[in-house]
Amino acid sequence: MSGSQCELPAQVEKWSTKDVARWLTSEVQVDPTVADKFEKEDVCGEFLLTFEKKEILEMGIKHGPAVKIARYLERLKKKGEKCWGSESRMPCLVEKWTKEEVYEWLVKNNNPLAEQLLQEDISGDCLLCFGKKDFKDIGIKMGPAVHILKKLSELKEQMEPVLQPNMISDHQKVVVAKTHKKADSKKVIQNATQNISDSRPNSQMKLSKSEQVKDPVQQVALYRSTIQNTLEELAKEDLKKFQFFLQDKKNEKNVGIPWGKLENKDTLDTAKLLIDHYGDQALTVTRDVLVEINQNDLARRLEQNMVQLSQLTCCSKESESKREFNQGEKLKNLLTCGGNSLENFERFVVVTNKSSPEQVQHLQFLTKLQLLCVLDFDPNSNSPHGLCHTYKETRVANLHSPSQYHGPMKSVVSCLNLYDQTSWVFCNGRHDFQSDANKELDYTSWLKKSCKDVEQLVAFICNQLLPYGRGLIIFLLLSPVDTDNDPFFETYRSFLKHTEEQSIITICESASAYAKWKELIVEKFHIDIDPISVYELTLSQVNGTVMGLGPFSQSPAKLLPSSDSSAVVLKQKDEDLLTALDILCLNQCENVFEDESSQQFLKFRMQEEEEFYRGGKVKWWNFYFCDKDSKKIFVKRDKYRNVMEMIRSQNKHSRNACVLLNFFHHPGCGASTLAMHILWDLRNDFRCAVLKDTMLPKEEVADQIVHLMKLESGTPSPVLLLMDDLKETDSLYDLVNCIRKAVEDSANLNLDHSLNCKVIILNCVRSHSPKEQYKRDNSTLCQYITASLSTQEKEQFEKKLEELQETHEKPENFYTFMIMKSNFDQKYIKDLARNTLKNFAIDTEDAKLFAFLTLLNTYVPESGIALSLCEDFFRVKMTPHPEDCVLDTMKIYSNVLIVDRVEEYGGYKTLRILHHTIADACLEELEGGYSLMASDITLQMLHYDLFFSKSVVKDRLMVSIERMLIRRQRKKDGDEREPFSPLIDKIHQQQGGQTVREIFVKASSRYSQRASIPQALARYLYINERDFPEALKWAEKAKNIAENPYIVDTIGQVYKSNLRSNMDKEKQEVSHNPEDLHTNICLAVNGIKAFQRAQEQSDRDDNFQFPDDESGDFPRKSYNIFGHVGVLEMSFLVFEILAKLPFFEERHPMKKKYLQSFLNGSIPISSVHKDDNQVNNRYAEIIKDHEQFLVHLKPEVKKKFDFLNCYFTYTKGNSEFDTVNHKTVCDHFKKYVDLFCMEPEELKKVKDENPKLNLKLLIEDRKKYLEKTQADTFSGILQYLDRSAEEMEKIVECYVFLQQTVIQKQNIQVKINYILANVVLYLLNPKSNHLKSYQKLCDLLLEALQAVGHHHTCPDPYYLALLMFWPTQSEENSEIRTYIYAIRSSSRKHMSKLFYRRSTIAHLYLGRENGLKRLVSKPSLDKNFLTKMKRDFLAQLWWNGDIFKEKDISSRLVRVGGAIEQGEVFATYGSLKIPVHPARGKGIRSGCSTEKISFYLGFAINGPLAYDIQYEN
After folding, report:
1. Is the model's pLDDT at 526 over the cut of 70?
2. pLDDT tens-digit profile of 132-152?
3. Residue 781 CB burial class (10 angstroms; 0-12, 13-18, ≥19)
4. Burial, 92: exposed, middle or buried (Cβ in 10 Å; 0-12, 13-18, 19+)?
5. Residue ranges of the alpha helices (H) in 425-481?
6. CA torsion sign, 873 to 874 to 875 to 876?
């Protein structure tokens, strides 16, 4: 044993962990880091003796040292036997070889395993310990292992081999460089400098090849040492003189070293300044200055040393060109992962510092990279000739600051347009903005003020934005970094904290700048960056190399169609701006491959066709291949012709700026392919695009479409836009309106070219009943396609299969194609599923993942699991080819799997099942053949933490799982939705409520910040389980997460369902317990409070953010009236309960009258006649306790009816929920009429027989009639515009009577309603005997206006004033402006909530006649069209404004002349200007241009509206 070993205890069993570590370092002589691992793992002597090589490898120790330790352990166990490695049979120097020298020896012997042994840290002493089994353990086969051992044995017959480092190739240098130590560099420099220092004039410096210096850091240190030694020979005054002359020497940027930096500097500092400022020219500058100060002898010696240095640093022309060539290859490999296309990395991040104009001209390659962002430390970058300014000449960049990257990922991505456009982040000032916030900071100030923001930015980029393992960070070193006290260096430090060092590369053209940069990194982080750096190429060479790389998937110059069959170029910058659109070009796919007969193209074509026919999304390439080979078939569904004809017809005949065409289809029946094929075939006639970003604001999408329409052409071109299954119908209509407005408002469009100013939207709508939906819509603006083939289509599929059999292997495995060919045959699909699952084993990871995909693809269309998530699931590290890795792991199911690309968040790949019918069949097979139910799979998915941690791809999966649990589908027979998602409904039917609860409870823990899951569970519990206490608990939990109107409404629904359930139970019971009444009234009180709270929140939260869930349980972007409706429903349940009490029983007329009187507040409960018994008395006590609540119900209900009547009368319905709510309100009003407005027959007879009854009773009788006909309100009377004149005459009679009664003379509202009733009656029957004259009505209205003034609580009187007093061309009325301001003010104050996100309706329009004849009602206009078209289509014409283009409208209405001034619309009558609102949102052009216009005028409750605004010019 060695001396150090003797210090150890004699018995190994008694060694401590420190003794073991000391033995490893002193005796075994392994690296101290290896010994540290043993010490950290608490390996003492006793434990050490139990170790084998396997355990040592499991500690993370590489094979080289592991084998050596194992051999020494064997000797230790055998107590004194020598280790083979320590014998003298081998040359003693082999034992001292480093791993690099072992590598060199193997390379010299042409052994291909050299790199593999280097990676395992196999040094000479380790190699001597290796046996055949050790080589086998690291994957080396017997042949190469025996060869290495043979070569080792031969060494004992030879002298020590001479190892020459210069024999290693540049590629090998990259590998070896990873193990260089800083101490080795210092030793080389020290030896070389000593040689130079000792040399005398005329002497020749002799250097062996092993002493040559190639490392840039070593070279620069050598230069600096040489200059310092030379300057040391100068006297103090001569050194000062040298420094004085030096300041006039200019570098390549024409800048000298300032005297302030040189003054009082010693020789070492002066040498450093020379190297940093002049780089490779530092020695030459030193020599020239020495000559200038007459130090010729010293200059001559320096020149001789420069020659020797040239030899030392291998700077011959031949080696330089070779090095540059290899650096070029290295750059390609770093940017492409060893390929030839930049597509291998999804996104690049560039970090750069100050640049010069000369450098910027060679940085065009940045425009080719898929940049996520640029972190720029040059405050002048956006100035002329700056890098950012130059980049923006050809690409779009949004200029940001680091602080703008704070917040949730989704909002940051959306706000900054990340992934769609480059984000250029100024990290240390910006000189094109003059403010303190944009000043460049020194390091200390930057550290205090900006460093934190930049660190957060870096963390945000690495942890959330960069595609998982598919992003590259490039540090572009354009100016030297001399110290670690530099913001640029701090940013490098930040990136190292958040990503792997292999993901960061450095590009630098200055050897000296790179040398200093590397030195700083080695010193601070002990990282050798040479293998991941490019430092021997000029920027021009870098630029040329990168520009020569792929991608090759796009045509060189993209063309768009223009007027007169011409074409224009789509510039890259314009394409950058159109972030929402995937644009189809005229020459799409052309000239991408130089030779389309090459094997490369043929292979590419085969792959693309196979992917499509297997079930991949269709690409433009598929249509290109079809066009290139016209003899081959591309199957077109029969509906192709119908859809094509529909588009051409609308383009030719429609006068609309934007036309919406709906294409209803079954999922997976080829509708999207058909739609894209139509775009492809029409790309010469239209500028075609697919809407790829549905999250952008509709106004921005519209602007982009207009930009595409006008691009590079004086004449606009029509646009054909494809949208695929946009979920929000309201959003779709909003988008159409926005596009119309944008097209009409665009000031640069020539109105002479109006036929070309057209956008046609083809909207593919996924539907479970497309044919029925088509029938409900209008046939001229929609088409449908189903999952059923015609005879002709079947024949085409047969022919296509024959073609595929000639060109592809096993086309019968193209299952999506085969499913369609079989006419979606269920037996074929089930057999396919059964065969796929024949080796299914649920306990394996691949089977679990396949089951998850089966469930997802069954219930969530277009869903999938990201490949990176699949890698994590299988616990495999990031691989260069994740697609192959995952599919290989899923091998037994891969026949029905495909990888898709998702374009969101910069793009990533997901795994899914080929066709949703396969997923359906596989789920059925799992349930039937393997007893693996949908609920089991759901719970397993919810079990995995992996799926629920935050990241881009995981967030998308979380959304899919949530949608699967809560998304409800529309019922096939109407607009209502099913109560639960299809998955929950299925689980409920299969396994019942306990399993559903278990799933929701688990999901709520996964979605702890989402209220939608506990809300859905609450709904399930009160609807299906009737477990109201538990439902209330979960509804309250949802409210605690996010209190909003919809959650609070759910609480109300729980109480309402509980009350209804109690009532149903009581119907089955023979005897009744009075205490049930108390329970039920308490439920009603709590329920009404909840509904009122929900409505208050909805009314108050005008800027309420709609919950980001997938349930579809509520209307988006419109006023929410669910609270009002809930109060009505709850109140009528209470009325029903009271009507069943013995003394209020509605079947008995007098008892019903008692109930009316009690609820009207006419009599207290104590005055109600009832039988005196214990039950009735207890009922009376309970009612007494709740009397205040009960007597307030009737007036509250009446108020709700009046409010909702205004809502439905004055505003446009724009959601499916309006239809449902309107029906609910109407049904309850019938109950209201029956309870409060109907009289017993006996009382009717008495009134009929006694016409001279009390006046009060007669008034009450008229009021009840008006109330039950809903004619007691202004909005109710307006609804009679489409009723019969006879009904209206009865209403007028009632108001005549009320007008004549003394008591009612002061009732202004009666007078106002009377006037409106006359107007409506006149429009229904101008010859009616019940009418007042126009003049008398005007007089009555003036009286009413005099009484109410200009600040009445309702806009009703001012609405009448507009109708009656609207001026004519011959008769002006200046008071009309006063009424305009009054109606706007009143409606805004008292009806603003009604108009929230809804448009008002004009029931009356201005016609061509005079007096009341000039008023034209909307129902009378509709009559002209209802005989020609369906009501739905007519409503669409009104909605989009096209109705005013019809002759039947223009012949009856008058166009009013007017003007637009400062963005406001006015109707003009002589000198009178009357303010008018545009009817269609912002129906005027932007720009506030003063123009003359004309329009049709409609009268709405919030003022006059201008329709069909036309500019005179």
Report:
1. yes
2. 677 777 777 666 776 777 677
3. middle
4. exposed
5. 443-449, 451-460
6. negative
